[in-house]
Amino acid sequence: MSIHTFFSANLMLAYLAYFVGTASPGPSNLAIMSIAANDGRKAALAFALGVISGSMFWATVATVGISAALIAYSRFIVAIKIFGGLYLLWLAYKSGRTALSTRVAAASKPNRPASFKALYLKGALLHLTNPKAVLVWVSIVALSSNSEGSTHGAVIPGCALIGCSVFSGYAFLFSMESARRFYTRTRRALEGCLAVVFGVAGIRLLAWSSR
Questions:
Q1: Exposure letters 5-23 (e unless 16+ CB within 10 A, then b)
Q2: CA-CA distances (angstroms) from residue 75 to 79, 83, 128?
Q3: Is the Cβ–Cβ distance between 71 and 77 less than 8 Å?
């Protein structure tokens, strides 16, 4: 097996790992679904772009090797865990309040979000306050490295393309009229599930920070 074939196979493995991680149900995807159904496609795309930006920030940090220093500096990681846990609990509270609300949104006309910038920042913050993202990207970079330890230059652009495709796909799918009608019928249950996901993730982060 040639060196080229070796690190090309590693790169494909890194892409596969990133795709599985981004496509799997989680706080970011569930939030994109909710925003797309409630506020429309553009709002969901703005949030998704924020998520991608946060992910690419950690990708750059991992690629240049700063992640090892961040992981070694325990106080920094603990601070991220605490802030991220509290932020997720706040999102859980908002989703829970929506789930308990009796207001029914119109299925045919999505709400107009107050600010796309705010949605972008919300998406970025959701990912930037997740310390697990650092560890995930350390693994992705390691998977794409060749036998000499050099990271493949295509890993970040390729993963960025995969992430954009996955998250924008969720935004387009759940902003369709049929998806919004489905969301209207199951709104309280879906927002309740989102509240549980955010709540469990937040509690786990806070518990993790106390270790």
A1: eebeebbeebbebbbebbb
A2: 6, 12, 16
A3: yes
All structural domains of the chain with their residue ranges: 3-209
Give yes or no for residue 182 having a pLDDT over 70. yes
pTM (whole model) above 0.85: no
Please give the backbone phi and psi of residue 114, each rounded to the nearest 5 degrees, phi first.
-65, -40
Identity of the residue numbered 24: S
DSSP letter at 115?
-
Rounded Cα gap, residues 19 and 168, in angstroms: 13
pLDDT digits (tens, 9 = 90+) for 104-155: 444 444 455 558 889 999 999 888 877 667 767 777 776 676 555 456 677 8
Greater pLDDT, 165 or 59: 165
Beta bridge partners, 145, equal 151
Rg (CA), the chain: 18
- C-alpha to C-alpha distance for 142 and 207, rounded to whole angstroms: 28
Q: Dig out the tokens for 127 from the structure.
A: 């990912």
In angstroms, rounded to a whole number, what is the distance separating the alpha carbons of residues 167 and 161? 10
- Residue whose structure tokens are 């930037």: 128
Cβ neighbours for 31, distance < 8 A, ≥ 6 positions apart: 47, 91, 123, 126, 194
